[in-house]
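Aim 2, interim progress: modelling of the zinc ion-bound target.
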Amino acid sequence: MIARVTLELNLRKEFDYFIPEELAGQVDVGSRVQVPFGVRKVLGCVTAVAEESEHVKLKPILKVIGAQTLVTPAVLKLARWIGQYYCCSPEAALKSVLPEAVRHEQAGWREQLFVRTVPLTGELPKLSKRQTDIWNIIEERRALPLKELLKLAETTASTVRRLEDRGLVAVVSEIAERDPNAHEHILPTQPLAMSPEQAAALAAITASIDADEKVGQKPPSRTFLLHGVTGSGKTEVYLQAIAHTLEQNKGAIVLVPEIALTPQTVERFKARFSSGPLQTLVAVLHSHLSAGERHDEWHKIRQGRARIAIGARSAIFAPVQPLGLVIVDEEHESSYKQEETPRYHARDVAIVRGQMEGATVVLGSATPSLESFYNCSKKKYALLQLPRRADEKKLPFVRIVDMRQTLRKGKAIPILSPQLSEAISKRLDRSEQTILFLNRRGYSTALQCPLCGYVAGCPNCSLSLTYHRQEQQLRCHICGHSAPVPKVCPERSCNNPGIRYSGLGTQKVEETLRNFFPHAQIARMDSDTLKKKEDYRRILGDFRTAKIDVLLGTQMIAKGLHFPNVTLVGIIYADLALHQPDFRAGERTFQLLTQVAGRAGRGDVEGEVIVQAFTPFHPAIQYARRHDFAGFYEQEIEFRQQLKYPPISRIALLTLKGRNEEKVKFSAEHLKRELEKNLADFRDLILAGPAPAPLLKAETFYRHQIMLRTVRMSALSERLGKVTQALKFADDISLVVDIDPTALS
Ligand code: ADP
Ligand code: ZN
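Predicted structure of the complex, ligand included:
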């Protein structure tokens, strides 16, 4: 027998090896193996097993990794699709479907010495006082790790061994699972009685889980978009849908954004399935686990002991089988997109996996992506809605403060408007808590006048121009349009000479806050202050126990946190997200404002949200104020339609990177000509660029981009894969192909 193997080398080729006698029966499709390649030993994955090969003189497989095949046939098929659709090598795609800790298996299972009692025959022999103490501990616990016993009894291993010699206890080596949450005590929860809307959503989902595919018929659409306002009880729907899946003897995958993967979230799932007839383990997969923990969690799923896998992006590859249900919570989150090869989008992979395995897929969000809502309007997905909060709590009142008014009164750019600082004072007086939010991402890439709100935009693309400070140039990174930076604001009624000088970060805001409220406890939470995951937990813990009055932070505090005592949420500058040079800037701002606003008023007191903005009448801000997703969608989809942006079309973004700008530019021009030549027959293709990327020089690399748009992305990416592979660029120039990019920078 021979095995076809994809090696972990980017060769875009598979190789045949023979299966030696001693490994017969251990090698199957999906096995991870070690094989000789030249003088090296290389790891790879078996993609096929056959009787014979067309090659002669095959080398043998050296070693099989793991007792079970690691890549299930379903996941192998998914990896093939990823390689093709996202234009990357099959090797790179395959590599991403297994966690590092499982691929190399260095961590392996951890063996540990356990001490356990053995059945006594007759009376307990006479023991010393010391020995009795030790024996009592073991007796009470029946079995415990030796290490723990030594600590508890303050004794040494040789003392314990003496008890073993006397036949009273056994010291044995056993596999100790590294359970990252071993010390949690979780109280089981029961299903809640559902609102009519929740019940209707659940009924549609369970009907899909139960529906059989009819031979010869187009399979039913099993993708749902669950659109429910924050706090509408989406999670309860997920939980009961999972319960139904387990009843059918199938498993489920739950995807949540990395930042929402808090102990709080995971606990809700564990609590429901920790006991009762449907009891199963819930395995958690995410980047904060140690290699050993990740290894163990993954194998719990592979062995079928855990039938629910919950995790961030890469958990979509969890070897749950048979798979009945996939949930993608906060489906609009851009962190589902992997920003390195393979550049897959976990939501889209989830839908493809669902189709391949006949599983139902539920996308959930309070602020769905335009893509998903558009797919509902095209009847590709079924729309389920939860328009009210589950606990009858009102959505918070949102007030917009026009910062241009505040500015005229003072001199420096204001950070706190009188309205916001007054609202904070009130909370301090009443011992209620405040969250302040500052979105720093994308800051200072656009040129905005702080006096009138004017933003420099591209006349061709309706995007903000990128402000390149060093060259004092404004540039569009889609079409290449460029313009000098104006000396005064071009708005005729404004002419502010201070247009070029604006700047602000969380640190500055923190300083200002401390000056305004010297007696308040203020904490800042952003990527600068959080070096460790403990910091994150500590600050949130302090906030929960009311040791902190005002929590100031970036994106990371916008999601999934539940604090009943927070009655005020302030957004320092709503515009910062609005003027990124990206057609999704409006959508992101709307999502962010709605999500952040959802943090207020989760307790008994009604919440208030204050949004400070320099462009207060922008539709993204106004619709968010009214919690009006449908209204926002209507006007936004029109804008996308006019300019043929997604979801009307799909985008492939090609970026050339290199240290020498002239060379990068030259290669980009060359690539453009090749694309025009090779894709001339591709109808509906729109080609734009090359143009410098918004962050032209990122990490010492110059970057130029070409953007392609089409409605037929599968067809295009297949052609693109061929065209780009055939091209040769200079050694120091690299090409990145990004299909369906979420960020245009
Ligand atoms: P979402 O996931 O949509 O933000 P959650 O599932 O977190 O909403 O629900 C918000 C709150 O409402 C939670 O405290 C939850 O326990 C509660 N809840 C959800 N469904 C119900 C229900 N049917 N009856 C009573 N309370 C509910
Ligand atoms: Zn342009």
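The chain has 21 helices and 28 strands. The longest strand covers residues 686-698.
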